[in-house]
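To: structure subgroup
Subject: Chain for Friday's discussion

All,

I'm putting the inputs and outputs inline so they're searchable in the archive.
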Amino acid sequence: MDHDELGAWLRLTLTPGIGNGAARRLLARFGLPQSIFQQTEAALQLCVPAVQAKALREIPQGWEALWQTTAQWLASAVPQGPARAIVSLGDLRYPQALLDTEDPPLLLYLMGPASLLEHQPFPSDRCLAVVGSRNPTAQGAENARLFARALHSAGLTIVSGLALGVDAAAHEGALDSATPPCARAATIAVVGTGLDRVYPRKNLDLAHRIAAHGLIVSEYPLGTPPLPGNFPKRNRIISGLSQGTLVVEAALASGSLITARMAAEQGREVFAIPGSIHAPQSRGCHALIRQGAKLVESAQDVLEELKIPATTMPGLPHEGANAAGVAVSDGTEDPVLAALGYDPMGLDALVARTGMGASALQVALLELELNGSIARLPGGVFQRVGRG
C-alpha cells in the first residue's frame, strides 16, 4: 500500500457516518478509496444517503495528523523488532475467513515477525479461539494454558484477546510450544486499542512475546484508547478468524459469551469446558452447553470435532487424563487432595472431611501449594490445580 492509498483508506475510516457496510458498498461501486473521493456528491448518493455523501466530500477532522502518524509508525519498525503492516479489504493478505463474515473490518493493523507479514500472515485454516473470564479460578487459568499448548502442538493457531485471565493464559500456552523459525503464527491477539499501546499494561511482556512468535491485530487506528465499546466489537474478529471458539470459564454476563454467540452466527463451532456447579465462572459455560455448545473434556475432543487427526500429535493430554491433562487417581492420591476434590473449599470444611487437626492440615496444604498441586484463592479457600 503506497502513501496516497494509505491516506485514502484512513480518510474513509474516519468519515463521519460511514460504517463498514456503507464503505463496502462504495468500494464495490467505485473501486479503491481514491476513486470514491473523486466522485461528485450526486454520484455518491447512488450508494449512500445525502448526509453521508456530503460528509465524504469533506476532510475528516484529524485525518492528516493520523495519516502522518500512521506512515511514521509503519516506517519506524526496527529490524530487530516486530514488523508492522496494514492490510486492507483488497489486499491478498486479508484473511479469507474474516472476509466470509458479515462485517469484516476495512483495515487490519498488524504486528508480528517479518517472515509472516511479508507473505500470508493469517493461517488459511486451523485457527481456534480460546476465551473466558478475566478473573478465572486457578483451575480455569491452568485449563486455558494446557488446552492452548496441546492444541497449538496439534497444529492450531490460538486466537484470543490479550485480556487478563483466560486470554493471557491461552496466549501463554500457545507460546509455550512455539519454536522458531516462525512459519506459522503460534497465537493471534486481537486487541481493542490502537497498536501503539498495550492494554492492559500488565500484559506488556506477553504482547512482546506474541509479536515475536505470532500476530497482534487491531481494526482501530493508532492512538485509539481502551474504550469499553471496542472490546465487544472486536470479538467478531476473534471468532471470525477461527474455525471454532472454546470458552474455558465464563460468568453469565461475560463478554466471552458474546464471542461464542458471534461464532455461532458465523457458522463456526462453539465448545465449552464444564466446571463446578458452585463456581460463578462456570455458569456461562453451562448455559452454552444447554444451548447446544459441545462439551469438551480434553483437547482431543476439540480436534475430533474439527476433524483434525490427533493420534500422532505431540503435547496432547495422555490416555486416562481429565480435561486439563491430569492423571486420574489410581487410589494412591494424597488424602488431602482426595478430600479437596475439584471444588474450592475452605479450611473448616477440609478439617471436617479429613479429620486432621487445623495445624497439621495447614502444613499439608502449604506443601501442596508449594508443589503446585493446589492454589489459595481469595476468601481463604483452596482449589486443586491440574497440571499436565
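Points worth raising on Friday:
The chain is about 40% helix and 15% strand.
The domain at 335-384 is CATH 1.10.10.10 (Arc Repressor Mutant, subunit A).

D.
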